[in-house]
Amino acid sequence: MKPPLIELEKVNTWFPGSKTILGKPRSWIKAVSDVSLNIIAGECLGLVGESGCGKSTLGRTVLRIAPLHSGEIRFLGDPIGTLSSKELKPYRSKMQMVFQDPKASLNPKMTIFDILKEALVLNTRVEKHAYLEQAVELLHLVDLRSEHIYRYPHEFSGGQQQRICIARALATDPRFIVFDEATSALDVSVQAQVINLMKNLQNTFNLTYLFISHDLSIMEHVCSRVAVMYAGQIVEIQDSRALFDTPRHPYTKSLKNAVPVADPEESNTLEVLKGEVPKLSDPPSGCHFHPRCNYAQDICKEKSPLKSETGDHSWVRCHFHETLWAQGTLIDN
Ligand code: SF4
């Protein structure tokens, strides 16, 4: 495998909860807790979990948009976790984000040219006189036409608006793009088109992606590896094919069971995920998943499981993963 483009080491992103009368935090909302992982150059790493598990915050933390409480982030080996806004500037253009709601992320008062020009200014490889030519080229890259350049965002469909957002992300000549639920709001047919576009662009420009979604079924088609997040922690990372065929963590298995299947008889036999997503301000003790886990034992309530390597760039956090694996408990027959 290639070297990592992004490295996260014991990353914590905490937000103050309640405060003392002196304004100091009395409690913390631990949106991201002790996350260590690498994103390999050229891969598409999926990040999946239920709403409210901290995955969007993790994406924003990697880009230094969300505040890093502690830990380190490295981009191509350079530590960027504690850099000031000024020091971060050369890295900003190399790391971009595409959001869930394209309409909300495009300024309705700006033409598409102005929107793309605003991003092109950050690209030192493009000279001022070439902005228009470059903006048109960006539109072509996302399968839009030259005549769209002086139109306004409201004149486009949701799928086209998302293409414009992708063009804007490309304008800075990035190495890394975070897609935060970027296809979730789109119709299924449009979703497939945008995903194909993303894959083509990744191959053409050798881009590295972090693809965030609550929908595990989509990961199989988009991502090379998938990280599963629960209550602020990564509980499993595997090659995407292996994650589907042989999940190592009970939560991954539950997410997989939640994917709709055509045969109602088959879906009736699947274990359904019980209970609620825990509050990040007060997660359960030990393994955060224990109140919802069918395989929990006493130790799970007391002790947080450590990471266990399961292969190349793959690991799981579960006290009983070896037994569950040996018994084939999490594998479909
Ligand atoms: Fe379930 Fe225990 Fe494993 Fe957590 S550590 S996933 S509670 S078996």
Care to give the gist of this entry?
It contains 13 helices and twelve strands. With 333 residues, it is an alpha/beta fold.
Describe the structure.
The structure is a single chain. The chain is of the alpha/beta class and 333 residues long. Helices cover 33% and strands 22% of the residues. The chain contains 13 helices and 12 strands. Strand 4 (70-75) and strand 5 (78-79) form a beta hairpin. The model has no long low-confidence stretch (mean pLDDT 93). Bound molecules: iron/sulfur cluster. The site of iron/sulfur cluster has 13 residues, from loops.
Question: What are the defining features of this structure?
Answer:
eight-stranded mixed beta sheet; single chain; binds iron/sulfur cluster; alpha/beta
Topology:
Layout: E1 4-16, E2 28-40, E3 44-48, H1 55-62, E4 70-75, E5 78-79, H2 85-92, E6 95-98, H3 102-105, H4 112-120, H5 131-141, H6 158-170, E7 176-180, H7 188-205, E8 208-213, H8 216-222, E9 225-230, E10 233-239, H9 240-245, H10 250-257, H11 264-268, H12 298-302, E11 308-311, E12 314-316, H13 321-327
Parallel strand pairs: 3-8, 3-9, 6-7, 7-8
Antiparallel strand pairs: 1-2, 1-4, 4-5, 9-10, 10-12, 11-12
The protein binds iron/sulfur cluster.
